């Protein structure tokens, strides 16, 4: 692939950071990693000026308001970041002929299906976070951006501290009670795998209007199975108390696994299964645990 100038927004987040590490293998490209302080995507004029100044060919938008429970209380902020700012990014991409890679979520679905969700399945978000992410998707799709894609992923974890893997490890370390939901099913996904997928497929994105692709690790489990696997890889065995999702602070889809076949066919990739990837995550991040 010819050398590209690539802007990664939200670069201090889980995925942004994973892309930063992965980018070291792509030294033919010029990357601009911008965290929230360096580039607030909700500031339209700043966004426009910075993008022009950097002369980017591709934007990978990893910036998002991702706190699902808090989004119910900070609706305006969640909507600005996940919807309005995304529309602004899409407008700039359309005007400047920039390729957009945007990240979305399994939470655009209501979880009532009993088999993995395909990209064109009916959306129906259950919470405000999911609603804002879906609105952001719609704003991008309206612009019919060429060679641009929306990647829906699920249950991300990384070496950053704010995710399910670290929450479980912290509870084990502190000897806290381990209450874990038993009736939510999905696919835990290693941010490193999403990052390498994104950078690997860049030369092969050639759609005439924006397309949605699912990407997650393969296989499906419940939150409790995920917690059990984390505990076993951490080398502990404590009692996990199963709880129902109805006791959670916010409603989440009961089942949100993603069907990976469209992505596998288009990009000739094979997804690593979640247990294998979690195992390699623990191996790679021994000191962090
Ligand atoms: N995490 C998951 O389980 C999950 C699952 C499915 C899909 N996704 C999607 O995957 C993408 C990446 O998620 P992630 O887990 O990497 O999220 P993350 O760790 O929360 O990272 C998002 C980053 O965006 C930053 N940000 C927030 N508002 C911003 C603004 N106005 N301007 C610029 N940056 C801003 C955040 O900064 P602050 O932290 O300082 O606010 C954070 O560094 C998101 O689109 C998310 O919706 C995530």
Q: What's the topology here?
A:
Blueprint: E1 5-9, H1 14-22, E2 30-34, H2 44-54, E3 58-61, H3 68-71, H4 75-96, E4 99-105, H5 128-142, E5 149-153, E6 156-157, H6 164-174, E7 178-181, E8 185-186, E9 189-190, H7 191-201, E10 211-214, E11 221-222, H8 223-234, E12 240-243, H9 261-267, H10 274-284
Parallel strand pairs: 1-2, 1-3, 3-4, 4-5, 5-10, 6-9, 7-12
Antiparallel strand pairs: 8-11
The site of NADP nicotinamide-adenine-dinucleotide phosphate has 26 residues, from α1 and β4.
Describe the structure.
The protein is an alpha/beta fold and 289 residues long. It has a domain at 5-156 and 190-217 and 256-271: Rossmann fold. Helix content is 39%, strand content 16%. It contains ten helices and twelve strands. It has helices at residues 14-22, 44-54, 68-71, 75-96, 128-142, 164-174, 191-201, 223-234, 261-267, 274-284; strands at residues 5-9, 30-34, 58-61, 99-105, 149-153, 156-157, 178-181, 185-186, 189-190, 211-214, 221-222, 240-243. The strands form four sheets. A six-stranded parallel β-sheet has the order 2-1-3-4-5-10, with helices on both faces. A two-stranded parallel sheet has the order 6-9. A two-stranded parallel sheet has the order 7-12. Helix 5 (128-142) links the parallel strand 4 (99-105) and strand 5. Helix 6 packs across helix 8 (223-234) and helix 8 packs parallel to helix 10. The longest helix is centred in the first third of the chain and has 22 residues, at 75-96. The model has no long low-confidence stretch (mean pLDDT 96). The structure holds NADP nicotinamide-adenine-dinucleotide phosphate. Residues 9-10, 12-16, 36, 40-42, 62-66, 81, 103, 105-106, 133, 153-156, 160 line the site of NADP nicotinamide-adenine-dinucleotide phosphate. NADP nicotinamide-adenine-dinucleotide phosphate is lined by residues 9-10, 12-16, 36, 40-42, 62-66, 81, 103, 105-106, 133, 153-156, 160.
């Amino acid at each position: 692939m010819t050398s590209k100038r690539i802007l990664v927004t939200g670069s201090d987040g889980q995925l942004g950071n994973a892309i930063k590490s992965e980018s070291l293998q792509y030294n033919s490209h010029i990357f601009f990693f911008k965290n929230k302080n360096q580039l607030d995507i909700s500031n339209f004029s700043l966004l426009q000026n910075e993008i022009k100044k950097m002369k980017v060919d591709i934007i990978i938008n990893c910036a998002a308001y991702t706190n699902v429970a808090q989004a119910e209380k900070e609706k305006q902020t969640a909507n600005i970041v996940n919807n309005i700012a995304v529309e602004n990014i899409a407008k700039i991409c359309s005007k400047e002929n920039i390729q957009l890679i945007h990240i979305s979520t399994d939470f655009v679905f209501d979880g009532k299906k009993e088999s993995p969700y395909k990209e064109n399945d009916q959306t129906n978000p259950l919470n405000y976070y999911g609603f804002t992410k879906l609105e952001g998707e719609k704003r991008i799709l309206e612009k019919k951006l060429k060679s641009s894609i929306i990647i829906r992923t699920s249950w991300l974890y990384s070496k950053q501290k704010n995710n399910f893997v670290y929450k479980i490890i912290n509870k084990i370390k502190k000897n806290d009670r381990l209450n874990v939901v038993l009736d939510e099913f999905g696919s835990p996904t290693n941010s490193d795998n999403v990052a390498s997928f994104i950078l690997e497929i860049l030369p092969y994105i050639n759609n005439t209007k924006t397309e949605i692709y699912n990407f997650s690790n393969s296989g499906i489990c419940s939150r409790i199975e995920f917690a059990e696997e984390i505990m076993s890889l951490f080398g502990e065995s404590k009692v996990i108390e199963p709880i129902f999702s109805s006791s959670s602070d916010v409603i989440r889809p009961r089942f949100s696994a993603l069907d990976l076949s469209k992505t596998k066919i288009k990009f000739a990739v094979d997804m690593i299964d979640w247990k294998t990837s979690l195992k390699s995550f623990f191996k790679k991040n021994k000191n962090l645990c």
